[in-house]
Amino acid sequence: MSETVYLNGKFFPKSEAFISPEDRGFNFADGIYEVIKYYGGKPYRYADHLERLKRSLKEVQIEYRDTDQLESVFQELLDKNGIAAQEAGIYLQITRGSQTRIHRFPDTILPTVYATVFPFASKWDQLKNGVKVITTEDIRWLRCDIKSVSLLPNVLAAQKAHEQDAVEAIFIRNGVVTEGSHSSFMAVKNGVIYTHPNSNLILPGITRKVVFEICRDHNIQVIEEGIPASELANMDEMMIIGTGSEVTPVVQMNENPVGNGKCGPVTRFIQERFFQQTLL
Ligand code: PDD
User: Fold this and answer.
1) Domain coverage including residue 33
2) Which of 66, 127, 137, 277 has the most crowded Cβ, counting Cβ within 10 A?
């Protein structure tokens, strides 16, 4: 069965969905995106994703007013693709639209709105046993709080990680850890969680917010402070967190084991609580 996608108000077989070569997403990476996971047929933290989407649109001044109709579009996509009952992901991309290439915003332009769904099973081996990450310099722009499709530094970092048999690259800016190329980052020392505060230097992750809620409910202290790279070797535990990563233990950073090289108790506790509440 051919895959069905959504483009500018209509559903198409993927092979028949066309975007102009003049699209500003293609020419300038002038667009934003969201990734949402569905557990048991239900979108996870939909309201948070929608709010972040609206914020991204506002920050880059893309005018798209039909955001409230998207949930039914996503549901229809899941149904049409026959994956409504599985763990599924939706990818939504909104660009400023297509027009002859000029840098400034064209006077009249309609956004390009594209959505697709895909099977999105949890990676149980990684969740159970943990993963390797590398560290790399954060060469991204100064608006990492916007979920922009301009992801070249993230792509280069993820490739560097892959070439070193790691699943994620953790960015370091001016000697301080920010986040991963496609996930949030947290570390644990003496039972306390440390993570970069929300600012222009990181994405306000939805899963990160969920972890904060779990910590609050279970009296785990969280300190929102950027971790100096020089302190990383002293951390007991580390985790990468996100819609796809969920709560994944980090057991190796570069060539060094994290803690005793196994998933630590704080990470495991948070991971278990996280999966309990994805089922709610
Ligand atoms: N990535 N930081 C970055 C740079 C990210 O790209 C992501 C998510 C996160 C975690 O955010 P959330 O918990 O809201 O998923 C943090 C998505 C999944 C992606 O690009 O595929």
Assistant:
1) 4-119
2) 127
